[in-house]
Amino acid sequence: MAAVLELIAGSYEQVTFGYRVKTDEKEWTAKANFTHHAHTASISAVAASERFVVTGSKDETIQLYDMKKKIEHGALLHHDGTISCLEFYGASHLLSGGEDGLICVWSTKKWECLKSIKAHQGHVTSLSVHPSGKLALSVGTDKTLRTWNLINGRSAFIKNIKQNAHIVRWSPDGDKYVVVINDEVNIYDLQTASVTGTIKNPKRISSVKFLNNSILAVAGDDEIVRLCDLGEEKWVCEFKAHDTRVKAVDSFMMEDFCVLVTASNDGFIKMWKLHLKEELESPTLLGEVNTTARLTCLAVWKPSSVQQTAEEPAAEATTSEDLARELSKTKRVRIAAEEVILEDESKPKKKKKGSRK
Predict the structure, then answer these.
(1) pLDDT tens per residue across span 190-228
(2) Cα–Cα distance between 342 and 141 in angstroms, integer?
(3) What pTM did the predictor assign?
């Protein structure tokens, strides 16, 4: 049976493109399904859940698009400055980060801002939610890597790094994470919260994506996509993906192979077939589409019916070891509104000055 999926790309031209992919032929075809021109400046971030596509822009807004009804669903106006990163946790929550230094946690039910965290002095450049939903990592222009306890919306700990990082990503298993600074990928271990290895890319890195728990796809300011084995700390495969620099990479799994999706300044979105086995071979092109726009970001929309189970809130964790212990108790947890926050900022409340809840 053919998979239902769409490629979503944002552009400098302020437009979001949606392409429905036909996967039942040997060569996949991507047919234009929608364009969404809701922003008044270039698009800087995009994310997709099973119901919504969200885009962030230099116009300081987050625009919502309902994929089921194929209609615009309004805008989120909380940030003051460019929206730098967007990430869904399951279908229930969206996290956004911006140049105002804020991370906002949104409920997708009523699109309320449940929590607004002053995360960094300077810009939030990237954020990533742990697979359990209990933790988030963020990096910013204040040269810090910060860990957030999403159960209470508070900072768990702060690590000073020597330079400004622009990408942070958890591995799918949540036992490690990567932090990107210019052309370097630093690999961190969850248990120790310290760097276990570093990989250097020939060019400044623009995008990374975990294909599985050990293979990381890396795109930089050139036309090459490189695959890195994080355990071995070495490049295991590289291929020319586009004619100009690759701006974004994403991926998803089919039954017996991985599909790597790349987007470039040249306007093309390409889908590559890759078998994740011991000896990696260069991927083969499955299909491509020319958007004729200058692409900035990319997401894959796949409807799914993954049910997440509610769990007991995590205990207060103060060290990386505590957090690792807490996280080892569960693989997946649903962030319930009453767990994430101590105060729901969407509701008016009478409060004396200086008093604390």
Answers:
(1) 999 999 999 999 999 999 999 999 999 999 999 999 999
(2) 28
(3) 0.86
